[in-house]
C-alpha cells in the first residue's frame, strides 16, 4: 500500500491529524494496534482547551461536543478547608469545556469513513523503516504481513508505541521525572458533588472532583506508587472522597457503582527532538505530563495542529519551512505545559519526602494565591491553554 502520510496510533493525536489531513484531500491511513472496542472504551482525560475544541469545530466533528460539552468558566483549588475559585473566564476571556476523551475519540472514529480516513484496527508488530530515506511501515493483520510506503510517518502511538523507539539514541535527549504516587480514578453515574472542578490538597493527600455530565462524576485521589486496585474496594475509595470533599463541596459526595476504576502513574517526560528524518512525533509519543493541569490530551491536539499545518503547506506548495520548524515550535509549547503541570502537581500533592516545612510552603502559596489576582491570572491563562 502507498499513502502520503502513514499515522501510527488511533488516539486523539492520530485521529485528529488524520481528519485534518483528509479535510485537505491528503491521503493517509491510521494503523492501530488495539481493537476499535478497546480504543472506544478507554476512560481518560476530560477537560478540553479551546485549542482542542476549535479543531473539532473546524472539522465539523462537533455534534457531540455541542450537545454535551459543559462550558466551565471557573475551577477551584482547595487546601483542605478553604476553596479558592479561579475565575478563568473573568481573568482570561476564555473557558474550558468538560467533554470526555472517550467521547471525543468515538466521535472522530465514527466520522472517519465518510471523510475517507482509513483506520486499520489490530495492526500488530508495527515497525518503522528507512526514516531518513524512503520511509515505510510493516505490520501484520490476521497473520498476514503488510507494508505501507509513505512520504511521511506520524508517530502518534502514545508513550509505549514503537515510533519514538525507532529514533537512534544518539539523535535524542530524554528528560524525565517520575512521581512517587499515582491517581486512582473512578467514573460513576452519580451527580457531581460540586458544579465546578475542585483540585484539593487535603491532609490525606490530593483529590480531584470532576465530571462528565450533570449525572456522571469523575473523581481521583492520590495513592502511593505501586498501590494495587485490589487494595481499593469501592467503599474505601468513596470513604476517602467523602472525607476529602464533603467539607469543601457544600454538598454530599453521592456514591454509586463504578463504571470504571483504574490507577494511572504520574510522570513528566519530554523527548527531543520531535522529528527524525521523515518521522514526526506527536502527543504522548513525545511527552507526558502529570494530569494535574489537564494538559495531556490538549498537548496532543496542539502538536497535530502545528504538524497538520506544516504538512498541508508542504503538499500545497512544497514549503519545507513548517516541517523544518515543527519540532522547535511544538516543544516550546510543550515545555510550558510541562512546567505548569509540574508546578501544579507540586502545589497540590503530598510528597512522601516532604515535612512540615514543605506543607507550610504549600499552604502559604495557596494563601497568596487566594489574595493575588496576578497569580490567579497566571494559573488561569495556563489552564485555558497558551495560544498556538
Ligand atoms: P494515546 O491516547 O496513548 O494514543 C496512542 C494510540 O497508539 C493508542 O490508541 C494505542 O493503542 C496506539 N498504539 C500504541 N502502540 C501501538 C503500536 N505498536 N502500533 C499501533 N498503535 C499503537 N490526561 C489528562 O489530561 N487527564 C487525565 O485524567 C488523564 N488520564 C490518563 C490515564 C491514562 C491511563 C493514560 C495512559 C493517560 C491519561 N491522560 C490524562 C493523558 C491523556 O489521555 C493523553 O495525553 C492522551 O491520550 C494523548 O493522546 P495520544 O493520541 O498522544 O496518545
Ligand atoms: C479530569 C482529568 C484531569 O487530569 C484533570 O486535570 C481534570 C479533569 C477528568 O478526567 O475529568
How would you portray this structure in words?
- It is a single chain.
- With 388 residues, the chain is of the alpha+beta class.
- Helix content is 37%, strand content 30%.
- The protein is built from twelve helices and 19 strands.
- Strands 1, 2, 8, 9, 10, 11, 17 and 18 form an eight-stranded mixed sheet that branches.
- Helix 1 packs parallel to helix 6, helix 9 packs antiparallel against helix 10 and helix 11 packs across helix 12.
- The radius of gyration is 21 Å and the shape is globular.
- The structure holds flavin-adenine dinucleotide and 3,4-dihydroxybenzoic acid.
- The site of 3,4-dihydroxybenzoic acid has 10 residues, from strand 14.
Question: What topology emerges from the helices and strands here?
Answer:
Layout: E1 2-8, H1 12-22, E2 28-31, H2 36-41, E3 47-48, H3 50-59, H4 63-68, E4 70-72, E5 75-78, E6 83-86, H5 88-92, E7 96-98, H6 101-110, E8 118-120, E9 124-129, E10 136-141, E11 144-155, H7 162-165, E12 173-188, E13 198-202, E14 205-213, E15 216-224, H8 234-249, E16 258-272, E17 275-276, E18 279-281, E19 287-288, H9 296-317, H10 321-348, H11 356-371, H12 373-383
Parallel strand pairs: 1-2, 1-11, 2-8, 5-13, 11-18
Antiparallel strand pairs: 3-7, 4-7, 5-6, 9-10, 10-11, 12-15, 12-16, 13-14, 14-15, 16-19, 17-18
Helix pairs in contact: 1-6, 1-9, 9-10, 11-12
The structure holds flavin-adenine dinucleotide and 3,4-dihydroxybenzoic acid.
Q: Mind describing the biggest β-sheet?
A: 8 strands, mixed
The count of β-strands is 19
What is the structural class?
alpha+beta
Roughly what is the average pLDDT, rounded to an integer?
97
Low-confidence stretches: none
The backbone outline, from C-alpha atoms, is: globular
Classify the beta-strand content into a percent band.
25-35%
Amino acid at each position: 500500500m502507498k499513502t502520503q502520510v502513514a499515522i501510527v496510533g488511533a488516539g486523539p493525536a492520530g485521529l485528529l491529524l488524520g481528519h485534518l489531513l483528509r479535510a485537505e484531500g491528503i491521503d493517509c491511513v491510521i494503523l492501530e494496534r488495539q481493537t476499535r472496542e478497546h480504543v472506544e472504551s478507554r476512560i481518560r482525560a476530560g477537560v478540553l482547551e479551546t485549542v482542542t475544541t476549535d479543531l473539532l469545530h473546524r472539522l465539523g466533528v462537533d455534534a457531540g461536543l455541542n450537545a454535551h460539552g459543559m462550558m466551565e468558566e471557573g475551577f477551584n483549588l482547595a487546601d483542605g478547608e478553604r476553596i479558592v475559585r479561579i475565575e478563568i473566564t473573568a481573568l482570561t476571556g476564555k473557558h474550558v469545556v468538560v467533554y470526555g476523551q472517550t467521547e471525543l475519540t468515538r466521535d472522530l472514529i465514527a466520522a472517519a469513513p465518510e471523510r475517507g480516513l482509513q483506520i486499520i484496527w489490530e495492526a500488530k508488530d508495527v515497525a518503522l523503516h528507512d526514516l531518513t530515506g524512503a520511509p515505510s511501515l510493516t505490520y501484520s493483520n490476521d497473520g498476514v504481513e503488510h507494508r505501507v510506503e509513505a512520504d511521511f510517518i506520524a508517530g502518534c502511538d502514545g508513550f509505549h508505541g514503537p515510533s519514538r523507539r525507532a529514533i537512534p539514541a544518539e539523535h535524542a535527549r530524554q528528560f524525565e521525572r517520575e512521581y512517587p504516587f499515582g491517581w486512582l480514578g473512578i467514573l460513576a453515574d452519580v451527580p457531581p458533588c460540586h458544579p465546578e472542578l475542585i483540585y484539593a490538597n487535603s491532609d490525606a493527600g490530593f483529590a480531584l472532583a470532576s465530571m462528565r455530565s450533570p449525572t456522571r462524576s469523575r473523581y481521583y485521589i492520590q495513592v502511593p506508587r505501586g498501590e494495587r486496585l485490589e487494595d481499593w474496594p469501592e467503599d474505601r475509595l468513596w470513604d476517602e472522597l467523602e472525607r476529602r470533599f464533603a467539607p469543601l463541596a457544600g454538598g454530599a459526595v453521592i456514591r454509586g457503582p463504578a463504571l470504571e476504576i483504574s490507577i494511572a502513574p504520574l510522570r513528566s517526560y519530554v523527548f527531543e527532538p520531535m522529528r527524525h528524518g521523515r518521522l514526526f512525533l506527536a502527543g504522548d509519543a513525545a511527552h507526558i505530563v502529570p494530569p494535574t493541569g489537564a494538559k495531556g490530551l490538549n498537548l496532543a491536539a496542539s502538536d497535530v495542529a502545528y504538524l497538520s499545518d506544516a504538512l498541508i503547506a508542504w503538499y500545497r506548495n512544497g514549503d519545507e519551512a513548517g516541517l523544518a520548524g515543527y519540532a522547535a515550535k511544538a516543544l516550546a509549547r510543550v515545555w510550558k505545559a510541562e512546567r505548569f503541570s509540574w508546578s501544579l502537581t507540586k502545589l497540590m500533592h503530598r510528597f512522601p519526602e516532604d515535612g512540615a516545612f514543605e506543607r507550610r510552603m504549600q499552604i502559604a502559596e495557596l494563601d497568596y494565591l487566594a489574595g493575588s489576582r496576578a497569580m490567579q491570572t497566571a494559573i488561569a491563562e495556563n489552564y485555558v491553554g497558551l495560544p498556538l
